[in-house]
Design a protein that fits this description.
Helices cover 30% and strands 17% of the residues. It has helices at residues 27-38, 63-66, 81-88, 101-113, 116-128, 170-178, 191-200, 237-242, 277-280, 286-297, 317-324; strands spanning 7-11, 14-18, 46-47, 51-52, 55-56, 73-77, 142-146, 181-186, 211-215, 221-225, 229-233, 251-255, 268-270. Helix 7 links the parallel strand 8 and strand 9 (211-215). Helix 6 (170-178) runs parallel beside helix 10 (286-297). The N and C termini lie far apart (83 Å). The model is unreliable at 86-107 and 326-332 (pLDDT under 50). It is found in: Nucleus.
C-alpha cells in the first residue's frame, strides 16, 4: 500500500501538512484528518480543488482514485465552531438580547427526529456499521455516550503532554460513572485517532473502569436543518438498533455541541466546553458535578422524564425528601 505523504491544506493564510495519507484513504477519512489539524468539522469543510474529472470528489472515493501527488495543495474553506460561536455572540454593550437559540432548536428537533429519510439512514448504519467491542457490556446497566474534543480533552491548546490537555477529574468521573453505566466514546473523527487519544489520556487500559466500544464519524448521519444547513449528527438509534437493551429510557449522551443531539434531543446533555486548558485546568469542576448527576439519576426508570437542560438543578427523590424534613433545631 503506497503512501501520499505531505498533502498540504491551505486555509486562508495558514498552511497545514496532512501526513500519513495512503492510496486507500477515503476523502471522508482525509476530512477527519483535516479536522484534527484545523478544528474545522468535516461537515463545514469545502475543499475547492479536490476534483475528479471536473466534479467534486465524493466522500467514499479514495485518494488513489483521484491521483493526488505528494505536496499537492488543497484549498480549504470553512470555520471552526468556536470562531462561529464567537462571531455569533452579540456585542457586550447591547441593552437587552433575547437568546432564542434553544427555542429555535426545539422546533428543528421535532422535525428532524421523526423524519423518515433520516430514520432510513440510521437503519442503514445499523445494518452496515461494524462495532468492535473492547469490553463486554453488562446486564442492568444504563448507557453513557461521551464525546471527546472539548468534552474530555482540549484538542486545540498547546501543551507538552496529553495530561495537560485532559479535562480535570476525568478518571474519577469515569470511575464513578462506570458503577452504574456502560461507557461508549463517540467522536466525529476517525477510529485511528479516537484510539490514539484514549491511549494518550490513559483511558484505554484503566483498571478502575472499562470502555465498551468506540464509535467514529462513520456512524454519524447527515441531516438538513433550516437553521444550520447540512450537518452531521450522532443518532443514538445506531446503538439502540444493535443493542436492544438500551433505549431512550436508559441512555444519556454528553457533547459540547447541542445539535449533535438533533435525532435524540431528550437524551442529550450539553456539557460546558473545556477550552484553553492552560488557563482552566485548575478551576474546571464540570466532570465532578456531572458525576454526581449521573449518580443521582442512576435509579430513574425512564430518562425521558428528565430535563437534562436543567441537570444542575436536579435532586433525587431521596434528596428532595431529606431537604423537606424540618431540621432538628425546630423539634420540640
Amino acid at each position: 500500500m503506497s503512501c501520499t505523504p505531505g498533502l498540504i491544506v491551505k486555509w486562508g493564510s495558514d498552511e497545514r501538512e496532512i501526513k500519513d495519507i495512503f492510496d486507500d484513504t477515503t476523502i471522508a477519512e482525509l476530512k477527519a484528518r483535516i479536522y484534527e489539524e484545523t478544528g474545522v468539522r468535516p461537515d463545514r469543510q469545502k475543499l475547492l480543488n479536490l476534483r475528479l474529472r471536473g466534479k467534486l470528489a465524493e466522500d467514499e472515493q479514495t485518494i488513489g482514485s483521484i491521483g493526488l501527488k505528494p505536496g499537492f495543495k488543497l484549498v480549504l474553506m470553512g470555520s471552526r465552531e468556536e470562531d462561529i460561536a464567537e462571531a455569533s455572540n452579540p456585542p457586550e454593550n447591547m441593552s437587552e438580547v433575547v437568546n432564542d437559540l434553544d427555542n429555535d432548536q426545539e422546533g428543528e428537533e421535532v422535525v428532524v427526529e421523526n423524519a423518515e429519510v433520516y430514520l432510513a439512514k440510521i437503519h442503514k448504519r445499523i445494518q452496515n456499521y461494524k462495532i468492535n467491542e473492547l469490553n463486554p457490556l453488562r446486564e442492568n446497566k444504563k448507557l453513557l455516550v461521551l464525546d471527546i474534543d472539548y468534552t474530555l480533552f482540549d484538542h486545540r491548546s498547546v501543551a507538552s503532554s496529553g495530561s495537560e490537555l485532559m479535562r480535570p477529574y476525568l478518571h474519577e468521573f469515569l470511575t464513578r460513572a462506570y458503577k452504574h453505566y456502560d461507557i461508549v466514546i463517540w467522536s466525529a473523527t476517525s477510529m485511528k485517532w479516537i484510539n490514539e487519544k484514549m491511549k494518550l489520556l490513559g483511558v484505554s487500559n484503566n483498571s478502575n473502569y472499562k470502555i465498551a466500544f468506540h464509535l467514529d464519524y462513520l456512524a454519524m448521519i447527515s441531516v438538513c436543518t433550516p437553521k444550520y444547513g447540512l450537518v452531521d449528527v450522532k443518532p443514538l438509534g445506531v446503538i439502540w438498533g444493535k443493542y436492544p437493551a438500551y433505549s431512550a429510557k436508559n441512555t444519556i449522551m454528553f457533547d459540547d455541541i447541542r445539535r449533535n443531539f438533533l435525532m435524540n434531543p431528550k437524551s442529550g446533555l450539553r456539557i460546558k466546553p473545556f477550552r484553553q486548558a492552560h488557563l482552566n485546568r485548575d478551576k474546571d469542576r464540570e466532570l465532578l458535578k456531572l458525576a454526581l448527576y449521573l449518580e443521582l439519576v442512576a435509579d430513574v426508570q425512564d430518562f425521558q422524564m428528565l430535563n437534562h437542560r436543567k441537570w444542575e438543578e436536579y435532586k433525587s427523590k431521596k434528596h428532595r425528601r431529606k431537604s423537606q424534613r424540618p431540621s432538628d433545631e425546630f423539634h420540640g
